[in-house]
Amino acid sequence: MDASLSPKRTIMTPGPVEVDHRVLRAMSAPILGQFDPAFTDMMNQTMDQLRKLFQTTNEWAFPINGTSRSGIEAVLASLIEPGDRVLVPVYGRFGHLLVEICERYRADVWKIECEWGTVFNEEEVIAQMHAIQPKMIACVHGETSTGCMQPLAQIGKACREQDCLFVVDAVATIGGTDVFVDEWCIDAAIGGTQKCLSIPAGMAPITYNKRVEAILGRRKKVERGIATADDQNTPTQGAPIASNYFDLAMLQDYWSPRRLNHHTEATSMLYALHEGLTLLLEEGLPHRFARHAYHEKALIAGLTAMGLELFVTHEHKLPMVTCVCVPEGLDADHVRAFMLRHFGVEIASSFGPLHGKIWRIGTMGSSCRKENILFVLAALEAALIYNGAKVEAGKGVQAALVYYEQKKNACSTF
Ligand SMILES: *Cc1c(COP(=O)(O)O)cnc(C)c1O
Predict the structure, then answer these.
(1) Which residues line ligand 1 (CB under 6 A)?
(2) H or E stretch including 113?
(3) From the alpha carbon of 144, which atom of ligand 1 is closest?
């Protein structure tokens, strides 16, 4: 298929989601050289925008070229030295990803698990930290696989008191709800572009503080032919970082005013990130977060009015992902394919033990708007009825409409 003929879709998954036209247009702008001041200015502006996004005063906030998982790998690869003890609270699929990456960099991983669909009591994680004495806790903020959001503030505070590093995967939540990097004592946080930022997959914004920077400085390996004499005289005391592409010490030098060449920054993706963050800051973080919560409530009103059961009903539901239990006797993937084929609407299934048991409906970024909510409800209801499920016919869209009509004065800008 010619990419320019890609079919029109309504994407209601937990990523990738719909992208604003301004971002798509930015991506078609002419290429600039990586040391052209017009481009390095844009790099600096992007760092500033990312500090605002992460609500941090950290000096270092920049994107890794690659999907979100590249940001996770860059942080973990650069912090973990073989044998380091790492505690990972796992409450869904992406917690297992953290475990997997930590193991590859030869950490001594201690995993604690809770049932999928629930989150940890923070006290429990803190007690484990005291018992295990890890160098780092690595934790997911928003588990897209289960639709849950882990509270982090107390864990972060306890980590700081024990001088334990706190690394957070905020890929799903960044740009959709508050992620208070400084206030929650997060030492390194990773975001993603293809979720609530509504930018195509291919960049992973990260931020980290001085505590992390100190470790990078200690582990710095100097690439010959690039570094100055000064760098070559810097003594290294730690194990060199085991990855070249994901070496944050080198990446930091590239993003610093010295612009020591590492990779070639992905030009068009940086345009996309810059434009997407400009849109986000024009909207304003509070408005954006309120918009996400607002449409999520409309979706929930519609789903429950239809008689469907939600997988997560407790207070730690992830605001940008709503998991719906698949009614008894239905083929979950068949219904999804039916919706895509007839309506061009995409929703997601889940992983591992939840595959076939729940659907996941995303309300992220540009996809998170009224027409999309009404359309996904209509398409789901029609697909369910056609495929023989018992639902309250006609109730879903009506309930969402009632919600929108009731709120229209209070929330006129959504
Ligand atoms: C989507 C997601 C990832 C992986 O993102 P990619 O962009 O596919 O690499 C990691 N963690 C969480 C919590 C996610 O939701």
Answers:
(1) 15, 67-69, 94, 140, 142, 144, 169, 171-172, 192, 194, 201
(2) strand 108-113
(3) 15
Question: With contact defined as beta carbons under 8 Å apart, do 160 and 168 qualify?
Answer: no
Burial (Cβ within 10 Å: 0-12, 13-18, ≥19) of residue 240:
middle
Q: Tell me the CA–centroid distance for residue 199 and ligand 1, in Å.
A: 13
C-alpha 413 to ligand 1 mean position (Å): 30
- Per-block mean pLDDT, blocks of 10 residues, the chain (414 long): 86 98 98 98 98 98 98 98 98 98 98 97 98 98 98 98 98 98 98 98 98 94 66 72 96 96 96 98 97 98 98 97 97 98 97 95 98 98 97 96 92 82
Residue pointed to by tokens 């247009």: 25
Q: Which atom of ligand 1 lies closest to the CA of 69? A: 9
Site to substitute for ligand 1 among 11, 13, 68, most atoms within 8 A of C-beta: 68
Is residue 87 classed as helix, strand or coil in its secondary structure? strand
Q: How many CA atoms lie within 13 A of 274 on its CB side?
A: 20
pLDDT at 411: 79
* Minimum CA distance residue for ligand 1 atom 5: 68
What is the distance between the alpha carbons of residues 243 and 241, in angstroms, rounded to a whole number? 6
d(CA 96, CA 143): 11
The pTM of the full predicted model, rounded to 2 decimals, is 0.96
